[in-house]
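Entry 14. Ran structure prediction on the chain below.
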Amino acid sequence: MSDHANRRVLIGCPVHQQANVLALFLASLTRLRSEGLDLHYYFVDDNREEASSELLKQFADEQGSGKVTIRYSGMTDVYNRSGVTHCWNEHLVWKVADFKNEMIDYALAERFDYLFLIDSDLLLEEQTLHQLIFAEKDIISEIFWTRWQQEARPQPQVWLRDEYKQWEQQRGEQLNSDQIAERMEQFLNRMQRPGIYEVGGLGACTLISRQALGKGIHFGPISNVSFWGEDRHFCIRAAALGLSLFVDTHCPAYHIYRDEDLPGAEIFLKKSHVPKFSSSSSVTFTEFSDPLPSSIKPRLTLSMVVRNEADRYLREALGRHRRYIQDAVIIDDGSTDGTVEVIQEMLQGLPVRLIRNETSKFSNEITLRKQQWEETLAVKPDWILNLDADEWFEDRFERELESLLSQKDVRVYCFRLYDFWSPTAYRDDQYWSAHHHFRPFLLRYEPELAYRWRETPQHCGRFPENIFELPNGLSELRLKHFGWASAVHRQEKLDRYMQLDPEAKYGWKEQYMSILDPSPGLVEWQEQQ
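Output, C-alpha cells:
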C-alpha cells in the first residue's frame, strides 16, 4: 500500500453504547491494518454507562499521546435499544448529526486526508480502510447487513432512491409489486458479490475524502426534506453537490444490532472474514417466479378478532375489505354492543364464520389468537389476511392485491403499519415508529409447516412466531391503524394495558406512559396513487 504512504485518516464515532458492545468495537479498531496510514481518533462520549467512558479512556491511553481526542457531550439523553429494535426520535437524530458535523469541522481544521465515520456497534475487517482508500472514491461505505426485524431477511445499509428503496426505478416509471420484488432481489444479490457499486444512499461506515469535505458536505437537516435520519440528508446534499456515493462489498462489517448478535461478534473477531448472507438462509426473500395460472385464482380469507367495535371503525373497515375478500372468519370476543349486527350488515352475501365468545379471552391473548387461528384453518384458506377491526390499507391495495396473491413462491407478506393519532395524521416519534418496520399481515397457509406460537399472555403476535420459515417478502403498500386516533380511545387502551400488564412484562413501559403525551410528533398522511 505504498500508494497511501502518509495518508492521514481521522476515525470519528459518536459513542452512546453499552460497555460489552463497545469493548468489541474498540477491539475491532485496534486490529485494522494501518501500514502507510496515520490513524487518529475522535470520539464524542455521549455514554450513560461509566464503564463505557472508561473503555474510551483506556483505548486513548493504549494509542499513545495525541492520537485520540475524546469530547464529552455533557448530555443525558436516553436511547432505547430493546431486544427487538432501536428507538430514535428527532432530537436524538439531529444530536448525532451535530456530533458528526463536529468531526467534519475537526477533520478540515486538522487537514486530514480522510474522515472515516463509523457507528460504535460495528466490527470491521482488518483490510477495511485500505480497501476503501484503494477505491479512490470521495464518499464510499463498507457494506454491512442487518435483520431489522428478528425473523426477517438481512438487508444492507445502502439503498438506491428516496428513504430506503432497494430497487431500480426510473423517474416516472410505474412498477407493480412483483416487478419491485424482482428488482429488489436483483439488488440484494448484487450486494452479496464483491465489488464497488454506485448507490443513492449509505451510512454508518463511511469514508469521506478531504475533497468532499471541502465542498461543504455535512449532516444538517435540509429544511424542505422530511426524510427520516441524518444520513439521508447527508446523501441528498452530496448528490446536490455533484458527489457520487459508492459502497464496497469486499470486506463486509458485522453489525451488533441486538444482544443475540453478540456470539456472532466474538466469532467475527476471531476469523479473517465474516460469513456473507446468502439466498440459502433459512429466512429469505424467495426469488419470484412465474405467477399462478389465471384459471386458479387464490382465495383470500379475512381473519379478525372484534370486541365492542360497533361505534368505532368496524363499519368502515369491513366496507373496504369486502371489495376484495372471498370470505371471513371473525371471533366476537364477548361484545355487549351491536358489533355482531354490524358484521352481518357489512358482510351480507359473503360466507362468514362468526364465533361468539360469551366471556372475553383478551386478558390471555395467546388463547384468543390460537382460537382465531384454529377457526380460520377450519375454512381451509388459501391466503389469510389478519387485520384488527380498526385497520385498513391505503386505496391502492385493492388494485395491487391480485399481483401479490398470484405469486407462487411467496408465502408471507410484510407491511408497514401507521398508527394514526387523528383522522389525518400518524404518530412518528421515539415511542411510536411501527411504520419504520415491516410486519406480517398476509399469509398463504402451508399445512406441512409445524406452526409454533410465542407463548405470552400479551403481545404474542397475530400469527405463529415461526412463519418466517416460509418464503417471505416486503410490500410497499401501507396499512393504516386508527385505534389511537381519538383521545377517548387512547385513554381506554392505556387503562386496559395498565390492567392487563401493569409491570410492562410483555410490552414497553415508556411507550405505555407516552400514550397520553399532550404534544406527540404527528405527520400528515399523504395518499399514494
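The longest strand covers residues 245-255. Will compare against last week's run tomorrow.
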